[in-house]
From TrEMBL:
Family, as annotated: Belongs to the SIMIBI class G3E GTPase family. ZNG1 subfamily.
Name of the protein described by the UniProt record: Cobalamin synthesis protein/P47K family protein
Organism of provenance: Oryzomicrobium terrae
GO molecular function terms listed in the Swiss-Prot or TrEMBL record: hydrolase activity; nucleotide binding
SMART domains from the UniProt entry: CobW_C (SM00833)
Keywords, sorted A to Z: Chaperone, Hydrolase, Nucleotide-binding
Catalytic activity field: GTP + H2O = GDP + phosphate + H(+)
Length: 335
């Protein structure tokens, strides 16, 4: 299909909330003079990350109907093939692809696609697996989740985010542990995605022989099972949130469920605030920042995604609905 050089692909991975989108935004907004096609895979059926990406004139393809490492691997092949065809026809232009996986993806099967599918292998070459590790929550994530260990094990680059928040002793212990899991990868501090671009792109790092050494069944294994108790809950609303009530509710929620709330994020409409409020949370750490305005002529529609273990869905539904501004009674409308 392709007569030109294979297109380099960077696989950006890391556990839920590690800082993948933050790093991606850093890459997209840096003046590197290159067009990048981005494939975003999110865990909930409704995505938020595409709204958080800054370099919006890039080609961005969303994959939200399943996790890239299992159910939607066929979609990934179709998307990659379609991008290559459109590029060759001169309809779009990009020099490389960055795939941001869900925080629960095992990068192994995704990397496998670049060797196992003929069309993909002809048009693309996997340049590197870049894994972001949260310096604050990383050790607990490595303990609890096989996916976090696989992400570290497959990495060509290990980037430590949130080094600004971690205790030096904990940081040293995590660094030693990552080096033991994956001595092959170059490891560096990258608070807020701050790492030199030339250390991330054109790494020519993905080494099939090295991978076959640590994962001999890499080219043949297909099955990956997510922990069944981890799920996503999506809440959408067209009434604004009451800021004080939302703060109270989320404060109480994380006190009780913080351990199991792996990740929550949203783009929210708050009463009295004209801007969109981007809300981010990982376990008990959360915060909101104003980011951009709502598109003119469209409803201020909030979208909130929670990812966690045994999520209290009913409580979330009731609690969040209770944080919305009360509807104006019909009798008062037009008075
Ligand atoms: N203090 C601090 N916060 C960070 C750093 N990197 C990322 N964050 C914050 O951590 C939160 C999660 O960051 P994201 O970049 O959205 O993480 P992600 O890996 O894309 O998350 P998911 O894709 O939802 O799993 C956001 O609130 C970021 O601002 C860092 O180095 N230091």
């Amino acid at each position: 299909m392709s007569r030109t050089a294979p297109i380099p692909v960077t696989l950006l991975t890391g556990f839920l909330g590690a800082g993948k989108t933050t790093l991606l935004n850093r890459i997209l907004t840096e003046r590197h003079g290159e067009r990048i096609a981005v494939i975003e895979n999110e865990f909930g059926e409704v995505g938020v990350d595409n709204e958080l990406l800054l370099g919006s004139d890039e080609t961005i393809v969303e994959m939200n109907n399943g996790c890239i490492c299992c159910t939607v691997r066929g979609d990934l092949i179709r998307i990659l093939t379609d991008l290559a065809i459109r590029r060759e026809a001169g309809l779009i232009d990009f020099a490389r692809v960055i795939i941001e996986t869900t925080g629960l993806a095992d990068p192994g099967p995704v990397a496998q696609t670049f060797f196992a599918d003929e069309d993909v292998a002809r048009c693309y070459k996997l340049d590197a697996v870049v894994t972001v590790v949260d310096a604050m929550h990383g050790a607990a994530q490595l303990d609890a989740h096989g996916e976090a260990r696989a992400q570290a094990g497959f990495a060509d680059r290990l980037l430590l985010s949130k080094t600004d928040l971690a205790e030096p002793a904990a940081l040293a212990a995590l660094t030693a542990r990552l080096r033991a899991i994956n001595p092959r990868a170059r490891l560096m501090d990258a608070p807020f995605g701050n790492a030199p671009l030339d250390a991330l792109l054109d790494v020519r790092g993905f080494d099939l022989d090295a991978i076959l050494e640590v994962a001999p069944d890499f080219l043949t294994s297909h099955h990956h099972h997510h922990q069944d108790d981890i799920g996503a809950f999506v809440f959408e609303a067209e009434r604004d949130f009451d800021g004080a009530r939302l703060e109270d509710f989320l404060g109480g929620l994380v006190m009780v469920y913080g351990n199991d709330l792996l990740r929550y994020k949203g783009v929210l409409a708050m009463a009295g605030r004209p801007e969109r409020i981007v809300f981010q949370g990982v376990h008990m750490m959360m915060g909101g920042t104003p980011e951009g305005v709502w598109p003119a002529g469209q409803p201020r529609r909030s979208r909130f995604v929670f990812i966690g273990r045994n999520l209290p869905r009913e409580l979330l539904e009731r609690g969040l609905t209770g944080c919305l501004q009360k509807p104006v009674p019909a009798a008062e409308v037009g008075q």
